[in-house]
Design brief:
- This protein is α+β, with helices and mostly antiparallel strands and about 450 residues long.
- The protein has a domain of about 110 residues: endopeptidase domain like (from Nostoc punctiforme) (endopeptidase fold (from Nostoc punctiforme), Alpha-Beta Complex), CATH 3.90.1720.
- It is built from 9 helices and 8 strands.
- Strand 4 and strand 5 form a beta hairpin.
- The N and C termini lie far apart (about 95 Å).
């Protein structure tokens, strides 16, 4: 009986060992480069689908804009004799509707920015409180060490009375050192977090101030337009009510479509990260396979680290900053030329690329360098050239946000004269509600 039990236990043990070794390779071996490439292709296909969805939304937005333009241009043709007068009315009405929509969207952006500032302020306050708490604890710790006479870890070790006591004190010193190091690291991290939130808060407040300034400018222009409109037309109140109605419809459409575009943009960015991670995994797998193959073949490492020397894009070391000439007229050259001025100041009403410009002054001066004359104000630039969808935007195109403009540089980014705090800088193209994308060349 004992012999049978012994045989049974041996059989079970062998079976367990065999099942372990048979199952192990599936968990140990990494995916091959072919499998990773297949996954990468699937991710890229998913990204293309998201891009197509965004393009379709952009087309819907353009269609809505065209319908609005058609509606305002067809307010009514009373008779052949009144053709020229009616045309003037249609142009004024279309401009009025556009301004009203722009003002509402700017107000929406201001409201969203105020909420963001409120949240950032809370995060800054919390980070600052954590920094101060940790700093107070460190001060208390130093004070305690001073009062107790623990001036250094070495002094603690020197007070050992025996070998075993020395070992105990070494362990104690290690614990003290680790505690102090951890607390110092926590304090440094808290201080950096508070500084980062502080910088973010200042930038957001500056953007809010600029948006309010842009809103005031748009409202002033609309008041001037309304005064002219009222003086010209007897049925001013009726036409104004109609313009407000059209503007409300258009604003709602833009907000809805912008929300969908922004959502898709985030999905595309997330998918792009997955694609990049898949590419890296594929490249790492290929490199590992090549290394393993080379080692198996007894091959020698190439070691040809053809160090491509880094190219300095900076200007002269010392002295004033130098700028490249504009070059031939193309969207890519316009974008590249504009990027040189990042870091230069924002000046309300300014048009200097070096000494300071506001958003529309920056766009005007960049195009002027290429011999292209464009309007001065952001509103006029938002109606200049021809409209293209955001999904078809190319470097050099101008994006109008309602009271604000920037030059698209590709990759979902713009360069623009942002605020007095931040000056000329880069921003995500979708950081505000996009009214229209214009192509000037």
């Amino acid at each position: 009986m004992k012999k049978r039990k012994h045989i049974l236990f041996r059989t079970i043990a062998i079976a367990l060992v065999m099942s372990f070794f048979m199952a192990e390779p599936a968990a140990v071996y990494a995916k091959t480069s072919e499998e990773l490439e297949s996954e990468q292709k699937k991710l890229e296909e998913e990204e293309k689908k998201l891009e197509k969805q965004k393009k379709d939304l952009e087309k819907q937005k353009t269609d809505s804009q065209n319908k609005l333009n058609n509606a305002t241009s067809q307010i009514g043709t009373i008779s052949e004799a009144q053709g020229e007068t009616q045309e003037a009315i249609d142009e004024t009405s279309g401009e009025l509707v556009g301004l009203m929509a722009d003002i509402e969207l700017i107000k929406e952006d201001i409201s969203a920015k105020e909420k963001l500032i409120e949240q950032t302020q809370k995060e800054y306050d919390a980070a600052k409180a954590q920094e101060e708490t940790l700093y107070a604890a460190m001060v208390q710790r130093v004070k305690y060490m001073y009062e107790k006479g623990d001036f250094s870890y070495v002094q603690i070790l020197l007070t050992a009375t025996s070998y075993s006591d020395a070992l105990n004190k070494v362990s104690y010193v290690e614990q003290l050192y680790e505690y102090d190091r951890t607390k110092l690291a926590e304090y440094v991290a808290a201080k950096k977090a508070a500084e980062a939130y502080g910088i973010q808060l200042e930038a957001e407040k500056s953007e809010l101030e600029t948006s309010k300034y842009e809103l005031e400018e748009e409202q002033k222009y609309m008041e001037e337009l309304l005064a002219q409109y009222k003086a010209k037309y007897a049925d001013y109140e009726v036409k104004l009510a109609k313009a407000k109605q059209d503007a409300a419809v258009y604003t709602a459409q833009v907000k809805s479509q912008q929300s969908s575009i922004a959502s898709l943009q985030k999905q595309i960015e997330a998918k792009q990260k997955e694609v990049d991670a898949a590419k890296k995994a594929t490249n790492d797998a290929k490199a590992a396979e090549q290394t393993a193959s080379a080692q198996t073949d007894g091959g020698n490492g190439d070691g040809s680290g053809s160090g491509s020397g880094s190219v300095s894009s900076g200007g002269n070391s010392g002295g004033s900053k130098s700028y490249a000439s504009p070059g031939s007229l193309s969207g890519a050259n316009i974008a590249s030329y504009a990027c040189q001025f990042v870091g230069n100041p924002y000046v309300p009403g300014g048009t200097s690329l070096t000494n300071g410009a506001d958003c529309s002054g920056f766009v005007q001066s960049v195009y002027k360098a290429f011999g292209v004359s464009v309007p001065r104000t952001s509103w006029a630039q938002g109606n200049y050239g021809r409209e293209v969808s955001y999904s078809d935007a190319q470097p050099g195109d101008v994006i109008y946000y309602g009271g604000h403009v920037g030059i698209y540089i590709g990759g979902g980014q713009i360069v623009h004269a942002s605020t007095q705090k931040t000056g000329i800088k880069y921003s995500p193209a979708t950081y505000r509600s996009i009214i229209t994308v214009r192509r000037f060349i």
